[in-house]
Amino acid sequence: MTTDTASAEVGERQQPGAVADPRTRNVLIVGVGGQGVIMISKVLALLCQTQGMQVKQSEVHGMAKRGGVVFSHVRYGAQVWSPTIPMGEADVLIAMEWAEGVRWLPFLRPESGVFIADTQQVIPPFACRNRQFGADMAYATETPAEIIGRVSDGFALDAGRMAEELGNARAGNTILLGTLSATLDFPLDDWLSVLNQFVPKGTEEINRQAFLLGRDWVEKARQDPAGPAGLAPELAPPPIQPDIDVRLEITAEWCKSCDICVKLCPERCLELDEQQIVRLKDPDACTGCRICEWLCPDFAIAVHHDNLAEANA
Amino acid sequence: MTETNPAGFEIRDYLRLDLMPHFMCPGCGHGIALRALLWAVHELGIEKDELAIVSGIGCSGRVGGYIDANTYHVTHGRPLAFATGLKLARPDLKVIVITGDGDCLAIGGNHLIHACRRNLDLTCLMLNNEVYGMTGGQVSPTTAETRLTTTTPAGNTEPAFDACQLAEAAGAGLVGREVTMQTPALRNLIKQGLEYPGFSFLEVISDCTEIYGRKNDLGESAEMVLSQKSDMRPEAYGNVADQPFRPNRLLTGVLARNERPEYGETYRRHADGVANGGKAGA
């Protein structure tokens, strides 16, 4: 993991009180690798610099490539001393991934913090550790409505889908940046000119549209909290797992005791019996992953996923 | 992982059940390659009557015989030559050639380079187990250096062929390589080969456990299958400058494409021209 700290002062050292609001403001941006967390924080940091403020930014992006956690602290104000945000002091928490947002909630200022979350779900492998067919996932179960009710000011939007409808699924972070801009008091033109410096060439227009879309979304949600824009979208339902019974069909007369299935079964649920023919030792452990079926050179194992619902119908 | 569902693929539907169990040794990778081939055929919805399998001599040659389709077991090294004739006469058939490393590169090396040169719509599956297994384990053109075989009792001194580079240089339309351990990936590669309108040369890294593996102390069947994993590198790293830690650099996936005219079409156009009283090429 890497921690980068950037601090900058524009022009002469700003005297306390030069900025209208002397208090240090804290923005915490969280997400998983590849979503554009760092880009949001860079735009925000440069914007604050252009407004004559001191900015400190600190991030962790180590495991990003594998969909791991990425977070970035941005603190700005007349004088910023520490680059990281203490727990319970983030004025704005932007989550690009739903479970990450829920996980970082303790950093949000309880009485006045603004919570902005994308309801997009990036389910990590650890949430699927139970490999049994149809097993529950260990993913955040909190619904957007539940969390919005818990924070002082919260917005949950499906930025991923909005960006897709706009024509580029990768503009999701810019939509969230737009929603962020509606909660901070910086001029819109400054936002757009800084944004233009960070987006890849050729995507300026779509990013401008995405930014304005996110900004408008907050305006609409504020005017009409019960309207379609203000309603927290439902999380995508978990994929429906059919009621499946895994059955191994072993053709004993074809088995040549090569042992590949026994040694390569991830659940170690096969064994060779006294005749050196494969046998299912532990039927409960078998997840029906088909590795034995694929790797049996003699076609002696067939994995069947019997649909119980169909069988009972 | 939607791929885990083989969508109703039952390998028994494609096998000659009266010949099963097959003659191959325990742990032989050729059986896995056969499954991947039949799986690809199933997923592409190719009818058995439209399918013709031509195979040469050797363990790999025997693989074709277990397929319940039009199969053709021909002379040593010549499956590509037979398949060329078959495809030119019956362009409606899907012709698959199953051949081995010795059959394809040594005895039939000449036919391979000319099949690549013509770019006729064939799919050539070369099952590479690095040895002549059927005849007792003699050294083959793909046997790695220092390996023990019955004809190299002190270790092989010849460098091995990279069949994919050979096929690419000779002009094959699509060149790919996959290991038997990655059965779904192998199926995908074979599907690409079958769909490609031209000559596709697919090298399948297979294991000879009983003869080659035992002689070289490569472990039992499961260990040999697993070692494919450590020998393998995805194609994505092919052009990376810092070559990683693998001593045995084995690229997999689609390795090369040569966009060239398919020979069967050219041939028929010229044949029509001649039939109408003109000259070839007119």
Describe the structure.
The complex is a heterodimer of chains A (313) and B (282). Chain A is an alpha/beta fold and 313 residues long. Chain A has two domains: 3-223, Pyruvate-ferredoxin Oxidoreductase, domain 3; 244-312, Alpha-Beta Plaits (2-Layer Sandwich). Helix content of chain A is 30%, strand content 20%. Chain A is built from ten helices and eleven strands. Chain A has helices at residues 37-50, 98-103, 144-150, 159-166, 172-183, 188-198, 204-223, 260-264, 291-295, 308-312; strands spanning 3-8, 25-32, 54-60, 69-77, 92-95, 114-118, 153-157, 244-250, 270-272, 278-280, 301-307. In chain A, the strands form three sheets. A seven-stranded mixed beta sheet of chain A has the order 1-3-4-2-5-6-7, with helices on both faces. Chain A starts with a strand and ends with a helix. Residues 1-19 of chain A have low confidence and may be disordered. Chain B is an alpha/beta fold and 282 residues long. Chain B has a single domain (24-235, 249-275), classed as Rossmann fold, CATH 3.40.50. Helices cover 35% and strands 17% of the residues of chain B. Chain B contains ten helices and eleven strands. In chain B, the strands form three sheets. A seven-stranded mixed beta sheet of chain B has the order 2-1-3-4-8-7-11, with helices on both faces. In chain B, α1 (30-43) packs across α7, α4 packs across α5 (109-118) and α5 packs across α6. The radius of gyration of chain B is 19 Å and the shape is globular. In chain B, 46% of the residues are buried. The A-B interface holds A 253-254, 256-260, 262-264, 289-290, 294-300, 302, 305 and B 4-6, 10-12, 15, 20-22, 24-32, 35, 180-181, 183-184, 209, 220-223, 225-226.
